[in-house]
Structures are given as C-alpha cells and as structure tokens.
Amino acid sequence: MYKIYSFVAILLFSTLMAGAQKTIRFTITAKESGAGVAGATVQLKGTAQSAVADSNGVATFQDIIPAELTAEITALGFEEVNVKITLKELEKGTIEIRLTGSEEEEMEEVVVQSTRTSRTIANVPTRVEAISLEEIDEKSNMRPANVAMILHESTGIQMQQTSATSANASVRIQGLDGRYTQLLKDGFPNFGNFSSGLSVLEIPPLDLKQVEIIKGPASPLYGGGAIAGVINFVSKTPKDKPEYNFLLNYSNIGQANVGAFLSAKKNKFGYTLLALYNHQKLYDVDKDDFTEVPESDEFTIHPKLFFYPNDKTTIQIGNSFTKGKRTGGDVEAIKNNTSADHRYFEKNNTLRNITTLQLDKKLAEGKSLVAKQSISYFDRDIIVPGYQFGGNELNAFTDVSYVANAKKHSLVVGANFLYNQFREDTSSFQKRNYTTTTGGAYAQHTWDASEKIKLETGLRADLVNYKNDIYSKTTFFLLPRVSLLIKYNDHLSSRIGGGMGYKAPSLFTEQTETIQYSGVQQLNNVIAEQSYGGTADIDYRTRFGDDFSFSFNHLFFYTNIRKPLVLTASPGMPDQYFFQNASKPVNTLGFETNAKLVYKRFFKLFLGYTFTDTKAKYLAGNQFLPLVPRGKLNTALIYEKEGFLKLGLEGYFTGRQYLTNGYRTPSFSEFGFMAEKVFSKISVYVNFENFTDTRQSKYKNVVNGSHTAPTFDEIWNHTEGFVFNGGIKIRL
Q: Which CATH architecture has domain 232-731?
C-alpha cells in the first residue's frame, strides 16, 4: 500500500510540475541601435539548458520550471551580461536584454532589413550604411520636423533645394538627380514622382530606429528608380517595455515642433503611434522682402497596430496621414498686405495618406514568408500669381517574398506589382495624366563560400507599361546584380558590386519642380532610362591599446545612364518645354572616404570626404552637371557620456559648383555646435546650426527683377543662414 501511495504522489507532483512549465523567450538587442543580436547565447546557470538567438535576436526555452534563475548572455562583440530572473518576470514569458558592444564591432552587429535576409552588416556582401538610433536622435535635435538633416550630414548624400521660396528639396546620391534614388519607409516605395519634391520634408524622424543606405544599383529587390541607391527609413516596433517619448522644440527663425511617439506591447497585441505638428513662421534674413524660409503648417499622425496570433505570425496594419501648407515669396503678400508692388507668392497645399498592411510568417527553422500591401494617395496644389498646377497621385504596391536562411546560404525569391497613376486637376490645353504599371519577379542568393568569402547574386525581371493620352510604351527589363565580400583578416575587408537598373519615364524631376511644371508638355515617344554601374570599397578596423579604436572606409563608385531623359526648350516657343532622350549618356564617378577615431567610448572624431565627377556627355562644351560640388568634406567631434551629457562640434566644406548658365560658384564652409544634458527621463538640448552664418545672399541676391515678376537664382548654398534652436525631450 505504501508503494502505491508513493507512486500516486510522485505522479501527482510530476503532473503539477509539468503544468507549471513555461515557454520563456529572451529578446536580445544592441543597446546603441536597438537591433536584435543574432547568434547571442543564453545559458541558464546551474542547469544544462542554453539557447542561441535567431535572426531577430530571440532565444527560446521550452518547458522551464518556474524558479528564480540567473541567465548569462554572451555575444561576439558585446560585453557579457549576467541577469537575475525573478518569478514575476518569468510569468511574463518574455525577458528583454540589452547588450553593450565594443565600439569597433557594435555597428557590424546591426541587423539590416533592406537586404531581407536578417543578416548583420558584417556578413552582408551588399554594402549597406546604417544610421543608428543614437545618430538619428542627435540629428533630430537639429531639425525634428523631418529627415533632411539626417541625410544632409551623411557622406556622399546631397540635399538639393529646388525652390528658393518654398524650400522644396530632393535627395542626391553620387551627384545624380533625385529621381534616381529610391526612398522607402519600412520597405514600401511611396515617395516618388509627383510627391518626390516634398517627400524628405514629410518624413518625421521621431518614430525611426534606423536608416539604411545602399549606394549604387540595387535593382533586384527594389526595381526601377534604384539607380543611384536606396534609402530605407526603418520604424520602431513595439517592445514589452512601453515607450512614451515627447518632444518640444523652438528656433530663432520661428519654427515650433510638438511631437509624441508612443509604443507598447501586451500579450497578442501591440501598437505604435506617431503624432507631430510643425509650424514655421515666414523668415526673411536678408531683408529683401522675400522669404528664405516659407510660412508653413504641417500635421502628421501615424498609428500602427501589431497582432501576434501565435509565436510565428506577425500582422501589421498602419495608416500615415500628413496634411501641410507652405507659402513663400513676397513677405507683404503672405501677410495679406497685397498691393501692385507686393503680390508674388508660391503656395503649396498637400495631403498624403499611406495605408500599409504586412504579414510576417515563420514557416520553419530559418524560413519565412512576407506579404506587403500599401496604397498611397498624394494630392498637391501649387499656386503662383496667374498660374496653378495641381493633381493627385495614386500608388498601389504589392509584394510577396519567401526567405530561406540555411547555414551557408540565404535565398530571397518574390514577386511584386506596382501601379502608379497621376491625374491633373487643373485646366490646361493638354492634361498631363499618365499611368505606369509594373509587374516583376526577383531572386537573390547569398552564399557563404567560406568564413572569408561571401557572394551575393540577384536577378530581377520587370514588365513595365507607361501610358498617357497620346502615347503608350511597354518594355521588358532583365536586371542582374552581383556583390562580393572578402574578409582578408579580422581587420581588413572589401566589398565589390555591380548591376543594372532603369527608370520609367516621368514628368516629375528636379528641373520641372523648379518651374512648378509650368509649360511642361506631355511625354511623347520617350523610352525608359537604363543604367549600369558599380561600387568597390575597402574597410579597415583596429584598436590601439585599450583606449583607442579606429575605422577607415574608402569607396569608389561609377554609374552610366543611357538615353537620359532631358528637359528641352521648345524652338520658337518661349516658356514651353518637352522631354526627349539624349543620344549620349550621363556618367558619374568618384570616391568617398570615411574615418572614425574613438577614445574610451566618450570622444568620437569623424572625417568624411566625397569627390564627385558627374558629366552629361550630351552637352556641348561644359559637360558638368549643375549643382554638384566636386569635393565635399564633413567633420564632427562628439563627446558623449551616456545618460548624462552629449556635446558635438561639426564642420563642413563644400567645393565649387557649376550653375546651369556655366557660372562657377565659390566654395564655402559652415560650422555647428550641439549640446544635450540628460536628467533621468528628461533631456534638454540646444543647437547652433551654421553659426558662421554662411548663406547664398551674402554672395549675390537670390531674387532678381521686380517684385511683381521676380526670377530666382538656383540654390547652391544655405538660404536661411544661422539657426539657433532648443528643446526638451521626455522619455517615460
């Protein structure tokens, strides 16, 4: 009888313990970037149980008996962490761990999303530059309204202002026109064509965790428009620990910003919410009665819901809404003091709505399916005295991809469909409506041939139809791409890559933006621009003793664009323009050099130089493309003690540029200083941008002619001069 009781007791105890067993997940991220640390090892001390984090930085333990534990977390390039886990934390089922990395390696541990393989930068053959959360936070101190400052201060990227009065701008990589750069938000391409002149001014930085930049052709995954490169703005996602961030900012030129980012996750649901209001007073620094910074109001709200029906499935639904108006020109006209001598203005009214849906499904170990759908609507009216241009653009994007990660191979295959429609809603002799329909399939394979050699090959096939009221053209494109990573040793590596690309015809370019599309005729008998190009770099990283780390990267680039689409004045018809394909190409070549020296993690010195030689071979005589500086130097000295104080001194030198009329501008330099003091959950910052007050009007008046019919010089320098701003950030 005793044996029977004993057996029943043991059986009952075992049953109770089995019922108490739990599944525990450790979410391991890098402290500096917030990215998951793939390959991190979690060892439960006092047991034989351990787990390795997947590509998202998640390590899972099955059947854990609740008890107070100590976990040891180790990862290459990061400091070891020992964490005591309480019963209360175990009940939650998910434990968040943040690792601090060694300075020279933590950037390499960043997981990039733009290549879709969840690899770290160190193991991606494609050259990807990642701007971390820390850097985004620094740059948003300078201009929290949009991402323009983040890109302006990156080596090899130029923010080109396209309007002297409304301050519209586009992004140039390697000296090429902004239409050759593909802008993405979380992989969705909703910022091209008609909306491109305002896109970087309508993307807030407050909800970003990372910005990824691929320079050179990147067509296999991203198709048309990725000739000069790709910029992907990656949003934050909910964590188990809620995040509540608030921002208040004001500047001496009359800009006020009020914003909030909220994020939380509980059980099977999560959310993020971005809300930002920007107000700008008109600003006339040189007192010529014309604005250097337009009067503007802009509001953005972007809620996103996350649903986790099980451990292998994530569904995201989001809607971003932005409404803005900006008015530049004659100060008195903007103030409603219109008279015969004061009546010129340029007004932009915009509305942008982007709805996104994404499904991420883990199929098996290392395999996943991702389905994306977005619908974007953009409406814009441009009004100047005696002229108005307006229209709306509808953009629909669908993408389905399958990703398989094995020990030495990563494969991405997929297909997408892109529909772009523009409808002009202003009266004109011939409405410039058009529709572009693109269907494509792609594949990319990454092979770890050895620890030192990794090869990536990709191929895209696109069928593109462009159609307007007078012309239709269907074209098939086959776009190969190859990238090679060679790790010579622990300090020295190199990446070499090349590929082909194309850009479907479009009326919306930097040139037509500067003239508000006035007199631009409908496209007729033009073909898509096609390109080939490549990049090659060498990267060196080392340490000097225990206190110094040093990194150096030198990149060469080359791109050839055949049959470039060129805006041409109509013979005998003043102020009338049409597009045609030039018989000779546009070439850009040059190099970028970046160096970084760090002392004890507190002092960081950055040096960057870009040399760009961009020529339009179809031009007679001077073939240099306008507004492309041959040389540009950027430097920064940063002192940072995390959670206490941050100081930064920056300097920039921009070389001479050619204008369209052949005039060569002077070179110029600018300097800035930023300071931020952290008080627990509140930080206060001040920023002195361009405190040397470098601006174009110091060399020559930007506005020419009379007040009633002014003309404007091309913008090659700052217009607003010195800007001082300060603000408060609250993190709860």
A: Beta Barrel (2.40)
